[in-house]
Design a protein that fits this description.
The protein has two domains: 1-30; 38-153, Sandwich (Immunoglobulin-like), CATH 2.60.40. Helix content is 19%, strand content 36%. The chain has helices at residues 3-25, 50-55; strands at 39-40, 57-60, 64-65, 71-77, 91-98, 101-107, 117-122, 128-138, 142-145, 149-153.
Length: 154
């Protein structure tokens, strides 16, 4: 094989390999990787769309918590209407973020039999106001970010 043919074949192979990785990363079975796509959120609180009503997570947390003590954070997917969760349309992942960083998540591997809601038991060690958010992945309608909520750690 001549050098020129070898270089062309190598370049073509690299392009095919990279294209395959891009398709794999965005596939429907790669829930956590889907986050690289657009993240949806509530656009107009006074006039939410039907998709927003069923997909934007609602985070419920106590107004204040004691430093170092466990407490519950509840996440309901669908802040106005609970997500329908059917065998072909479900929430495959719910992530809890504290201060913008992921601290916990649940993965639902089967649709229709798993709840679109989650409950996390966490504790915080630094005093002050702390921002909590949730991210939910719908297998059909993509990734959704909650409105932030705050708790005071004392």
């Amino acid at each position: 094989m001549e050098r020129r043919q070898f270089v062309k074949a190598s370049a073509a192979g690299a392009v095919i390999l990279l294209a395959g990785k891009a398709v794999q990363a965005s596939g429907p079975d790669n829930g956590p990787l889907r986050r690289m796509a657009k993240i949806n959120s509530l656009v107009n609180e006074d006039n939410p769309t039907v998709l927003e009503k069923k997909h934007v997570p609602l985070v419920t947390v106590p107004k204040s918590v004691v430093k170092g003590k466990w407490f519950q954070v509840r996440v309901k997917v669908g802040f106005m209407i609970e997500h329908p969760s059917k065998p072909a349309h479900w929430i495959d992942r719910v992530e809890l973020q504290v201060g913008g960083k992921k601290v916990a998540e649940i993965i639902n591997v089967a649709g229709g039999i798993t709840s679109p809601n989650a409950c996390f038991n966490i504790r915080l060690d630094k005093p002050g106001d702390v921002k909590l958010e949730a991210v939910a992945d719908c297998n059909i309608h993509g990734t959704w970010l909650s409105e932030p909520v705050y708790t005071r750690v004392t």
